[in-house]
Amino acid sequence: MDSFISTEDPLPIFLLLAELNTSSATVMLAIVVTMCALLFLSALVSGSEVAFFSLTYQQRMECKTGVDKTNKKVAELLENPKKLLATMLIVNNLFNITFVTLSTYLTWQITGSKDPKGIVIAIVTAGITFLIVFFGEVVPKVYANQQGLKLAQQTVYLLDFFNKLMSPLSFVLLKMGDLIDNRIKKKGYTLSVEQLNTALEITTGNDATEEEKEILKGIVNFGTFSVKQIMKTRIDISAIDIETNFHDLIQQINQTGYSRMPVFRDTIDKIEGILYIKDLLVHLDENQDFKWQNLLRDTYFVPENKKIDSLLKDFQLKHVHIAIVVDEYGGTSGLVTLEDIIEEVIGDINDEFDEVALDFSRTEDNGFLFEGKVLLNDFCKALDVPLDTFDEVKGDNESLGGLLLELSGALPAENDKLAYQNFSFEILEVNKRRITKVKVKIENDVLYEGGIDLDK
Description:
alpha+beta
């Protein structure tokens, strides 16, 4: 009988194999067994890729500090993650290429031709693709997501063997990768904050708590905030007149509870220095004529548009915790502290002297009551809306009252109503110079254009 079988023969594959001579059948059986082994090894490597690189920080530390030899080997391989990943990719591709080569040879043997018909090629290609993708990639990676550490422990010695065997080739690939990486760095690339936030949402998933996600978002957005967005405005600054006597000074300090206070002459626009309360501790027994003004420290002034990441570096270099924010004319615009900067990452910090109070309150009709002085940044956080919601209409203003002044074009009267998008604002209290209290409602069904008066 001819060693090759014609493709015209309609018999099923198992009958065709039965007609082969013993030698051909043995070779083909060996090829099938080898292909199964290759597919299994490919699955192990693919799964281990997810298993090793999805281990949490705590799991890696447990492997590194534990006494189990297998766990220590896992930690050892992860000490050089680039080399490990390169080994995994090399080995996995070698397994898959060999699998495809053997399947091609097997197809030639079964069809009796090295130029099979198109339908045969299509069937074989679809079958091989399904086997490699489903059994060699999808199934092991799904398992690895559930049993990451267990699979890492099961495959660690196999990967250690390949890691040593493929060292020369992985070394070459890593050097080439470094070369490409360096060229990309020279050309430069940027990611927008929005893209980083999207990536953060995708990668954190359900493994991170809401608090952890908020901290990560704070880090991502950290470089976008200006001093003006987080500062305490000038009307909220507790400052000391330089002409105050020592007795009145101590009373004022006791009332405010601050550890550092700016000192001004005549008006808040003329800051003479910063008084550190700890400098007064050794002078508490002095009479009211004590010249406490000699204890003032130099003031650090910063512009409104300075980014808070840059300000943080300045605080570190200058060893200060407080800065006076000035506007374009040199007048005092506000005050910012190290605590204000840190709160943008980890959230509000309240010490034992702080009064814990709500930034806003709910009304019976599902509205919210806000102070007009609240910063837009804090307003958006309180309502859990994007921080850039009002960027298009706020102008140079950073407070809720300033936003409403921008929308109305003039100082509104009490009970006036304004709206922007799906936010409706009702002015509850206003004095001669500013808006003091606002009622806010979020309309879920109707979106309003900026600045429309709801009464019209």
